[in-house]
Amino acid sequence: MKGICGGVFAIIALIAFVDSAYGGGGLTDSVRLLQAHDKALIREATDKVVVVYNEQMGSGVVVSSAGDILTNAHVVGEHPFVRIRFSDRGEMLGMVVARDEVSDIALVRVNASGDLPFMTIADNDALEQGDTVYLCGHPFGEEFVCMKGIVSKRWTTSPNLGSEFYGEWISDAPVFPGFSGGAAFNLQGELVGLPHARAPGRIVPAGISILIPPGLIKKAYRDFAQHGSVHWAHLGIQVQDMPQAVAMRHGVGLFHGVLVRSVLPEEHADGLLEENDILTHFGHARIRRIDDLKRAVRVSDPGDVVDVTVLRNGQIIAVSVELGEGTLAVLDSDASVGLNVHDVYGFTFHFDDGLNACVVDSVDEHGSAYHAGLQPGVVIKAYDSTVRLTSRARVALFWRVLSSLDDGDGLRLRVSTSGKKIPFETMLYNPTRRMWL
Q: pTM for this one?
């Protein structure tokens, strides 16, 4: 107890000393200025963050004076229209212009007179570890609430706890039901994230928030405006995180980069990148692991020509690669899906429109799928027990969850066979983490 009291008195004495060093009242004035700045930012955000509701209740953020509003795709669902409630303008009918289930971002538009206050989307690199963020929304569709927090780190890829591949940020500002699609803004009042309070296949632990980064928000909004949908890019290679043995083989200190395991034939990277290349840079981005490369590729556009640096046979080589269109999970050819899943797990599958589920096509007896009890004809109904595979978009997400499992991690599948009418569950384990990008 004495120690605690002593510490408290020491802090009080330190504050008094610093305050006197500022000429008396200087520190107090600084605190007041910070408080006034906080209040001004929050007051401005009140008119820029709206309630979005239909069957789902969430939030949205105004990003143009003409009436463009960004929110989460799972908030608007499949509805063509949603209701928008402003703090100072009552309710308006909003048209869902575009939605992207992969990024969980949607664009809603209202008929405005061009005088709506809006939030500017920050640059891609505007958010850094340790930055202050303000997280705001309308919990349960009620009054505006704003929380202040610190950005701690990027969210690492996990099939059970969040992002598939975007490197979303973690903040200690908590979210509440109804915060989904709201706004996270910085000290300059710029939009630096869209919070996930809930999303299909995601679990957000209590006391933190997961923020879609500004680079992805900006790309989705730009693509929505230009194309009506998000145009994803791909490099056309399969990579895995750098095994320590490979790093040691190339010399002490090389513990960053990703190992190229395969190059898709007839892609732009074919003939430029090779198996066993160690990819260290993508444009200006330094690549330390798969998540770094995923983020860099996903905010790029199809047709972009990117300078890629690799280490090959002890030599540093720079090549310029044009990016293809579409993520490898949602290309029309099922071969791209089967290729990756077969390499890692030893099975291939396709989506059956009649069954609204995935059907296993082939199983390698040496793969982990065989040991999980999968065989040709088995119907995969859901993963993580609750996420049902009822659409091709869901299958694309399922594929990415599979490809993002860390070494030795498993995913629970709900499956059925022709001989058993009642579905049963099995665990599918990833022996090594690889991904097509």
A: 0.68
Q: How many CB atoms lie within 10 A of CB 371?
A: 16
The contacts of residue 407 (CB under 8 Å, 6+ apart) are 430, 431, 432, 433
CATH number of 34-229: 2.40.10.120
Q: Which CATH class is domain 233-325?
A: mainly beta
Q: Do domains 233-325 and 334-436 have the same CATH topology?
A: yes
Buried b (16+ CB within 10 A) or exposed e, 156-168: bbbbeebbbbbbb
Name the amino acid, one letter, at 353: D
pLDDT of 96 over the 80 cut: yes
Residues 277, 383: Cα–Cα separation, whole Å: 34
Alpha-carbon separation of residue 100 from 107, 334, 398 (angstroms): 9, 21, 16
Instruction: Give residue-wise pLDDT tens across range 139-166.
Output: 887 888 898 888 886 655 443 333 444 5
Q: What is the pLDDT of residues 172-194, one digit of tens each?
A: 888 888 888 999 999 999 999 99
Task: DSSP for 377-389, please give it.
Answer: T-EEEEETTTEE-
Q: How far apart are CA 399 and CA 241, in angstroms?
A: 18
